[in-house]
Structures are given as C-alpha cells and as structure tokens.
C-alpha cells in the first residue's frame, strides 16, 4: 500500500463523506486502487440482513476494488446520534481491535485507504476511545474538511490546534461550499488558506446533486500523495 489518510471535519454535516468519496475517485484517476472505510457509523437502516449506513455505502460505491461492507464499516449503529450514545443503546462497546483488523484487510486489497471519521475531530467514539486514539493505532495522517459557512474560520483554526495537540499530523485540507447563502465565501476561503499549515487539496463547489466522481475534478491529490 502506498497511501492512507484519516478524514476529519470542522463539525458534523460539513461534507466529510462527499469529500472522502471524491478523494477516492481522485486517487483512482491517478491509477491507484483506492478503498474507503467508515469505522464507526451511527444512523443505520436494516438492509440485506444487516445494518447499513448511507455514508459507508457511498464510500463502498466509490471504492475499487469493492470491499465487503463489514470491513468498510465494522461498527454500524442504528440510532442517528453520537456514537457513544448509539452504542450504549444496543449494548455495544467500541474497541480498537475489530477496527484495526478490518483496516488491515482493506490495506491488503488496495494501494490506498481513505478512513472517514465521525463529526468533528474532538467528537468521541466512546467513553474510553477518542478519534485521536484510532489515528494513532492506525498511524494515519489527517486530512481536514472545512465546511465553508459562518464560523468556519474559528472552527478550522481550533481543529488544526486540536489535531496538533493530540500528536497527529495534518497533511492537507479541503474546502467545501456547504452554504450557498454564505456572503463572501471566496473571501472566507482566502482568509483560511494562510492560516492552515497544510496544502489545500481543493475546494468543492455547492452541487448537492453532483456525483462524487464529478467532484473529484476539483481535487488535486499530488501534495497528499507526496506527504504520505
């Protein structure tokens, strides 16, 4: 395997999944076999004999080769709430071992793995497990998705500081135009760029109906591949 990263965000609902899927397509356009992973997903529907999460399915669809669902999403939790609460509702205790085992199976399949986190960087996975623990266990560099909306400059700078404080390495960031009504969106993006000490991999336009493969055209993963 030549590449792996952990995709986090400045908040929930800022487009980590579409950015991760677009990144998978961008990597595949470079000739790499790239697969996605969503270790923990809350908010699942019971389909085909198991719990399935919409975001994890999107990553599976963007992957080539196509891994089995349980490796992409080892912990599929029914309730659409914080993972710690969703796991508690069904009596599940989240642990690193099943995630690490699934990750190793994905590594064996592909040249690259894109692992999508939950919510923002500081959102816990359980009472004993933070996302930084998972990043350390898998030895992953971090890509941050910034949802361009009111407050994003503060959220982005705090996230950058938190990633560094947790000993993780930020290797790139992606801007995502999640709010079509944001005045001076270009100016917000320009203010962010010099304040994030990592290369910008691109800026995704507001196109809610666009496929991830189309959005991949707005990403350049050259610097990311060089850093990883």
Automatic annotation (TrEMBL):
Q: For this UniProt entry, which segments traverse the membrane?
A: none
Q: In this record, what's one Pfam family?
A: AAA_26
Q: Which reaction does it catalyse?
A: (7R,8S)-7,8-diammoniononanoate + CO2 + ATP = (4R,5S)-dethiobiotin + ADP + phosphate + 3 H(+)
- Quaternary structure, from the entry: Homodimer.
Active-site residue list: 38
Give the molecular function GO annotations: ATP binding; dethiobiotin synthase activity; magnesium ion binding; protein homodimerization activity
Instruction: Kindly state which keywords UniProt assigns to this record, in alphabetical order.
Output: ATP-binding, Biotin biosynthesis, Cytoplasm, Ligase, Magnesium, Metal-binding, Nucleotide-binding
- CDD domains xrefs: DTBS (cd03109)
Name of protein: ATP-dependent dethiobiotin synthetase BioD
Query: Which cofactor does this sequence's record say it needs?
Result: Mg(2+)
Q: What is its main location?
A: cytoplasm
Listed pathway(s): Cofactor biosynthesis; biotin biosynthesis; biotin from 7,8-diaminononanoate: step 1/2
InterPro entries recorded for this chain?
DTB_synth_BioD, P-loop_NTPase
What EC number(s) does this enzyme carry? 6.3.3.3
Residues at which substrate binds: 42
**Which leading EC class covers this enzyme?**
ligase
- Record GO cellular component, one term: cytosol
> Which residues of the sequence carry a binding annotation for ATP?
13-18, 55, 116-119, 176-177
Give its localization: Cytoplasm
The family note in this entry says: Belongs to the dethiobiotin synthetase family.
Which superkingdom? Bacteria
């Amino acid at each position: 395997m030549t590449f792996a990263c952990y995709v986090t965000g400045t908040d929930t609902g800022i487009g980590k999944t579409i950015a991760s899927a677009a990144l998978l397509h961008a990597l595949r356009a470079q000739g790499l076999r790239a697969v996605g992973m969503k270790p923990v997903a809350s908010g699942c529907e019971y389909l085909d004999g198991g719990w399935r999460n919409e975001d994890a399915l999107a990553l599976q669809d963007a992957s080539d080769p196509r891994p089995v669902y349980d490796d992409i999403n080892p912990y599929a939790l029914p309730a659409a709430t914080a993972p710690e609460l969703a796991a508690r509702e069904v009596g599940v205790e989240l642990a690193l071992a099943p995630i690490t085992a699934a990750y190793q199976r994905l590594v064996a399949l592909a040249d690259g793995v894109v692992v999508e986190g939950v919510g923002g960087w500081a959102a816990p996975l359980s009472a004993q497990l933070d996302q930084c623990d998972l990043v350390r266990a898998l030895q992953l560099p971090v890509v941050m998705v910034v949802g361009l909306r009111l407050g994003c400059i503060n959220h982005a700078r705090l996230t950058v500081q938190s990633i560094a404080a947790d000993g993780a390495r930020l290797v790139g960031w992606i801007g995502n135009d999640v709010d079509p009504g944001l005045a001076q969106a270009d100016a917000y993006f320009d203010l962010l760029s010099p304040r994030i000490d990592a290369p910008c991999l691109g800026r995704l336009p507001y196109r809610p109906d666009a496929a991830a493969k189309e959005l991949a055209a707005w990403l350049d993963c050259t610097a990311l591949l060089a850093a990883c």
